[in-house]
Write a structure and sequence with these properties.
This protein has 110 residues and is an alpha+beta fold. The chain is built from 2 helices and 3 strands; from the N terminus they run E-E-E-H-H.
Length: 110
């Protein structure tokens, strides 16, 4: 983000929605330059992992197919899968940090 940016709202989905959805949303104002003027427009930027993006895409398709009324067992499965995705994301982050630490040890010890 630009240092000149003055307003920003952050919605953090560490605590998932009822559906299991998790992500980080930033709501920011960006300048739009028109012919004779500049207008500030709010935009929302979503940050999510590849795994959560996969889950969210499937959840969207399911809700669209069932017009927002998916069967309860499907909703439960989606919530369970969201938990697995979160656990996978956390484990992969831990593994990444471990690899970085080991790489640093190799560099420092060489």
């Amino acid at each position: 983000l630009s240092r000149r940016q003055r307003q920003m709202c952050i919605r953090d989905r560490k605590n998932p929605k009822e559906s299991g959805y998790r992500s980080l949303h930033l709501i920011v104002q960006v300048p739009i330059f028109l012919q004779n003027t500049k207008k500030l427009v709010y935009v929302e930027v979503q940050f999510r992992t590849i795994a959560m993006d996969f889950w969210a895409s499937l959840e969207h398709k399911i809700n669209y197919k069932f017009e927002g009324n998916a069967p309860e067992h499907v909703k439960r499965e989606l919530i369970e899968c969201a938990g697995m995705v979160s656990a996978l994301d956390n484990r992969m982050q831990e593994l990444n940090e471990e690899i970085k630490a080991l790489s640093k040890e190799d560099t420092d010890g060489a």
